């Protein structure tokens, strides 16, 4: 029985310590790998946040342009629609949305602040949407 205890004690000790030439190798590997993995995770998280904010800016610009392009609507109504959607989505506007008419088109531009998690990404994302201005056509004009 005493021999079995000595064997188990010696066997367990050799498993824990491993080869004397490999002592500390796992610590060095961990010290080198963990910062690299964390850096990639932060960059992936920042890219995700940036893309989410870009989609919110696109949606707000599209909404603003669509509302302003309706027959009888105005640029102010489009701007208000973009501001309302930005607030509903929980985004932070970097500047007031701009809605303007250029010929027969309505153009809306929205800028949203992007939270900074990792460096080298823009702090603001800007998106623009263009819609054709609706116009009322009488029955006579449609038949021509």
Give a verbal description of the structure:
The protein has 144 residues and is α+β, with helices and mostly antiparallel strands. It has one domain: Pantoate--beta-alanine Ligase, Chain: A,domain 2 (2-Layer Sandwich). The chain contains four helices and three strands; from the N terminus they run H-H-H-E-E-E-H. The protein has helices spanning 2-17, 25-69, 75-89, 139-142, and strands at residues 98-102, 105-113, 124-132. The chain has a three-stranded antiparallel β-sheet. Strand 1 (98-102) and strand 2 (105-113) form a beta hairpin. The mean pLDDT is 87.
Number of helices: 4
Rg result: 31 Å
Please count the beta strands (DSSP E, at least 2 residues each).
Answer: 3
**Fold-level CATH name:** Pantoate--beta-alanine Ligase, Chain: A,domain 2
Helix content: 55-70%
For the structure shown, list the relevant keywords.
3-stranded antiparallel beta sheet; alpha+beta; Pantoate--beta-alanine Ligase, Chain: A,domain 2; 56% helix; 3 strands; 4 helices; single chain; 144 residues
Give a short synopsis of this structure:
The chain has 4 helices and 3 strands; from the N terminus they run H-H-H-E-E-E-H.
SSE arrangement:
Layout: H1 2-17, H2 25-69, H3 75-89, E1 98-102, E2 105-113, E3 124-132, H4 139-142
Antiparallel strand pairs: 1-2, 2-3
